[in-house]
Design brief:
The complex is a heterodimer of chains A (394) and B (181). With 394 residues, chain A is α/β, with parallel strands linked by helices. Chain A is 35% helix and 21% strand. Chain A is globular, with a radius of gyration of 19 Å. In chain B, a hairpin with a 4-residue loop joins strand 5 and strand 6. Chain B has one domain: OB fold (Dihydrolipoamide Acetyltransferase, E2P). The chains are: A alpha/beta (394), B alpha+beta (181). At the A-B interface, helix 4, helix 5, helix 6 and strand 5 of A face helix 2, strand 4, strand 5 and strand 6 of B.
Chain lengths: 394, 181
């Protein structure tokens, strides 16, 4: 696979996080676009590539938005793939810039959160879900993931206090990230264990809070970023695979297993060199599955790995092994802003690698790995994607 | 907005449904409607491929194995093995919200011997992963076919027996509003 030399990511933007919002998806996408051109100091007509991800655009599409915002892109992409939409948009945009189809691509994920809109999204998520999942208790994603979590616990002996390690360290990170909706609140192990039950082994703090928000970044040539005097990071390697291991009756692994060894080789970086890991944390078990599949530990060793690993951004935890994980709190603490949640790990990693994270800055971060997971069409998430980013001059 | 107004507003937005009778989710795709129709006269019918024999679920228009379009609903064996079960304490549907106020609603995933993995309502609360079950279809209070899993030892051979199981779960009647309007 051809590399991404000379293509960089810059101008991470996260905005508008709210439990409920009167604004629609186009407000969030457009506001991110405004912040992107403001941060980059460019005219909006210089954005000639436009990649959008959103669940709540309704009858509108990425094309409709070009008229709303008065932009004239010669390259457009609509990546509605939930948890992998950010990485997929990044990959498509990087190739477009590499091939000269666009010079500056704005990749934006944004979703509104009208009152009770989450119910409508969950009830109409896919035709298989409408026909064969939602009628069975209407638990939405909680039901699907409680089955996956229960199966994982049965198969590998994971316990709730293992999942707590992920949720608690992420909350600590969120306590230092101003935009996290749950950031002002602390979370103790007792809060976690005593939380109200939601579905099977899942309790309140295992579940993300649906919210509104927007995330975005720019993809351009390194020369252009230097010219604009923008801090940037490099794309070292990336891959994606969908509907892998379809024969597993219950999901406990996904596509990363197949492409991560080659991805590390292309990047010339191994799991031991990763300074920051951002997983798609719609439920802690999914983060644990990613840690295994991305090569940080063997399959089934996720529970002991998280017990022995300090996942705080400032490495202040007790465990000896250090791996800052979901350094802004992830969705579990920031909230899940629809498709923007698939961008959260990327924007946060760009901030970290360009040393502009603020209070939750990881010291000496050089390599960041972002992974995406998503789209529960029926009983499992179908998509897996990963991108390895490196700071400038690494 | 002061705190009192804020709380009033929050209460208003979270006002519970006043519907006297709530029913389970009725919405289905056209293929889901076909599934309901095909399951009316039989215990369990799934779309089977005439070319390769692959059994489909959820219902599809093309065979998921060979992409052929010669699919026909056929009766399939009801036996299967429980993969995982879950007790729902929270639901997005008013019907299930009312049903699970007293005891959690139990559903689970089952690997049918016929091939596909199905999600189903679980009739016996002791069922757990690895247990052998029978899966049958039945009409719920929204007049749509849903799948129900019972312990393998439970007799589900006649329509009357299956109806009794569904009645015991109160799946065939709407959930009334507690305490009146």
């Amino acid at each position: 696979m051809k590399g991404y030399e000379g293509i960089v990511l810059t101008c991470p933007v996260s905005l508008g996080y709210a439990k409920q919002s009167p604004h629609g998806a186009s407000w969030f996408v457009g506001s991110v676009l405004r912040e992107l051109i403001h941060t980059a100091g460019i005219d909006k007509q210089q954005v000639d590539g436009f990649a959008v991800s959103s669940f709540s655009l309704g009858i509108d599409s990425a094309v409709s938005l070009t008229q709303h915002f008065g932009i004239r892109p010669r390259w457009i992409e609509q990546a509605n793939m939930g948890g992998v939409s950010g990485i997929v948009a990044l990959r498509r945009a990087a190739r477009a810039v590499q091939c000269g189809e666009a010079a500056i691509v704005a990749c934006i994920g944004g979703d509104g959160a009208a009152h009770r809109s989450f119910e409508a999204t969950a009830a109409n998520f896919s035709s298989w879900s409408v026909d064969a999942a939602f009628p069975y208790g209407a638990g939405g994603p909680n039901a699907a993931f409680s089955l996956i979590t229960q199966h994982y616990m049965d198969k590998f002996g994971a316990r709730r206090d293992d999942f707590a390690r992920i949720a608690l360290d992420q909350r600590y990170n969120a306590n230092h990230y101003p935009q996290a909706l749950l950031g002002p609140k602390r979370l103790s192990i007792n809060d976690y264990m005593d939380a109200r039950p939601i579905a099977g082994p899942l309790h309140l703090f295992d579940c993300v809070m649906p919210c509104a928000g927007g995330e975005g970044f720019l993809v351009m040539h390194e020369d252009r970023a230097k010219q604009l005097d923008l801090p940037y990071c490099h794309i070292r390697a990336s891959d994606e695979l969908h509907n892998s291991y379809a024969d597993d009756p219950v999901q406990y692994r996904s596509g990363w297993i197949e492409y991560m060894p080659a991805l590390y080789e292309r990047a010339n970086v191994g799991p031991e060199n990763i300074d920051i890991l951002q997983t798609y944390d719609d439920y802690p078990v999914i983060s644990m599955m990613q840690m295994e599949d991305l090569g940080f530990c063997n399959k089934g060793e996720g529970p002991s790995f998280v017990q022995n690993t300090d996942m705080r951004f400032d490495k202040s935890g007790r465990a000896a092994n250090k791996l800052p994980h979901n350094t802004c709190g992830g969705q579990l603490s920031c909230g899940q802003a629809g498709s923007a949640a698939g961008y959260l790990g990327i924007t946060e990693t760009i901030r970290q690698l360009t040393k502009r994270a603020g209070r939750n800055q990881v010291a000496d971060a050089r390599h960041g790995l972002v992974s995406g997971y998503g789209m529960v069409n029926y009983d499992r998430g179908l998509c897996s994607a990963a991108v390895l980013l490196s700071g400038a001059g690494v | 907005m002061n705190l009192r107004e804020k709380m009033q507003r929050r209460l208003k937005l979270s006002w519970p449904s006043l519907r006297a009778r709530a029913r389970p989710p009725k919405k289905r795709s056209p293929l889901g409607v076909q599934f309901t129709a095909a399951n009316l006269p039989t215990v369990l019918a799934l779309p089977c491929c005439n070319d390769c024999g692959h059994v489909q679920y959820p219902p599809t228009e093309l065979c998921g194995h060979c992409l052929g379009d010669a699919l026909a609903y056929r009766s399939v064996p009801t036996e299967g093995t429980v993969l995982a079960t879950t007790r729902l304490h929270h639901s997005l549907s008013e019907y299930f919200k009312r049903r699970l106020t007293q005891t959690p609603w139990i559903m689970g995933s089952i690997k049918l011997d016929a091939g596909p993995v199905v999600l189903a309502h679980i009739a016996d609360d002791e069922l757990q992963a690895g247990d052998r079950v029978n899966v049958f279809s039945h009409t719920d209070a929204s007049q749509q076919a849903v799948l129900i899993a019972t312990a393998h030892s439970t007799d589900t051979s006649t329509a009357a027996l299956r109806r009794d199981i569904v009645s015991a779960m109160a799946l065939d009647v709407p959930a009334p509003k507690d305490g009146g309007l």
